[in-house]
Design brief:
mainly alpha; about 80 residues; about 0% strand
Length: about 80
């Protein structure tokens, strides 16, 4: 018995552009709670790069800022 090969269609999506690079932000402040909440789930987990579209540099800064805001109890 031979298996039938099926072809899957690849999703064509537009490239995600880092919103921090667009607005030329060089530092993400942990006191900016409204911005940090956009990059978290309802349970407080940090959203990954593939979903948010941020670049590596800003994703690292974002993670550090969210973790600092958690310590100071600004966000969950």
């Amino acid at each position: 018995m031979q298996r039938k090969k099926t072809r899957r269609k690849k999703r064509v999506s537009k490239p995600k552009i880092c919103r921090f690079c667009e607005s030329q932000i060089h530092y993400i402040d942990f006191m900016d709670v409204e911005t940090l909440r956009k990059f978290q789930t309802e349970k407080g987990k940090i959203l990954p790069r593939r979903i948010t579209g941020t670049c590596l540099l800003h994703q690292k800064m974002l993670g550090i800022a969210i973790k600092r805001a958690r310590i100071v109890s600004l966000v969950l």
